[in-house]
Amino acid sequence: MAAVSQSANYIEKAIGHTGDAVTENDMTNPDRDRAKYGDPSGEKMKALVWNGKNDVQMVETSKPKVIEDRDVILKVTGSTICGSDLHLFHGAVVQLQKGDILGHEFCGKVDSVGPGVKNLKEGDRVVASFQIACGDCMYCKRKLSSQCERTNENKVENIMYGGRTAGMFGYSHFTGGFAGGQAEYARVPYGDVNLLKLPDDIPDEKGLFLSDVLSTSWNCVVDTGVKEGDVVAIWGAGPIGQMCAQMSFIRGAKRVIVIDGGNAAWRLDLVKEKTPKVETINYTDLPSGTTVTSKLKEMEHGGPDVALECAAGEYAKGIGHKIELALGLETDTSEILNEMITSVKSYGRVGITGVYVGFTNHFNIGAVMERGIRFIGNGQAPVHLYWQDLLKMLQDGSLDSSIMLSHRVNMDEMDTLYKKFDARADNLQKVFVQTRFSDPPAVGTPSLTSWK
Question: Is 184 exposed, middle or buried (0-12, 13-18, 19+ CB in 10 A)?
Fold first, then answer.
């Protein structure tokens, strides 16, 4: 995959960008051009950068400055690590470059604003959406912010997908090349559109998760059509799967069954502890001859009504897919997808929220057609469509994001955090990463963990 990623960089350089973005692309670190992007004060900041496959490092780099009228510079007060970040860590997402600042989930306090920003001022507490939207294009007017037409001019993505996603923070040049928020400062293009003010009754330890995980989980559940009386099966017991379980019950699901295993099997116990109504399947403990599909059909006649994919396509189980991934013959395995397709009832719904970046082999298209399976790509979640309603749910208590928050760590230990999170170690679920600008921990949230 590393070779595929670098090949994509060369191809993009050769064919050029589409040239239609309305904000600066390929600014993944202010030190790429300190005179153009670095703050004139010369102030430095700590940031986490990608340095190659399975290699991230904390570095000192320049604080970003306002370069466009609607920019906002944030003092980052909270960030986190996501399963999607591991795809970058592994080099599974194309067009990463050494020195790119990572991180697409962050919140903070406004440090400075461009002259075009009228709705924010210095000191405002805000959360950033992980996608960068212009606010004015066809998709933005419908609040489908993840598909903004004007913030990502990457031509390789346009050719591969027949269209482009919005620009995204800290997620490679494939999505525009924007510096991420696993840093002490972050530049937010179109900050008047891509930042949501946080009220005083929502601490950072809750507000942070409006940036991605809550919207992504809600989108998965709503877009796949979970409704009253449904039986829902969820592949993956990480934070997205855990929140999808809670949200499925909010939407009226009768039963929710969460599937996981291997070195992540401990997450099933965590999900069960926090949401006791959940049922679980540890696929590594199934007896010989029993598959996830057969177990689900044993638990529910015909299988679940809905299957939600909250894992991702880079994790192959069988030797065939492992070889094909290693040789670059596919970018994603179809194993979980096929398992979901064969598990649901005829005319059931399958929703894909875990990251799939390219092409897969051995996909069971016959079962999709013959049994009428509704196969739904949930897409990168349109955060702007949901975050105001989700904020209200956090405020009235109908949604509890605290069930996934397991740890608090200092930013200067983020390189260690990546390795431990990748190994599913120390029961790390969702982590709040503090900076020198963070407020003291909110009541009832985890105390500081250090590995030093």
Answer: buried
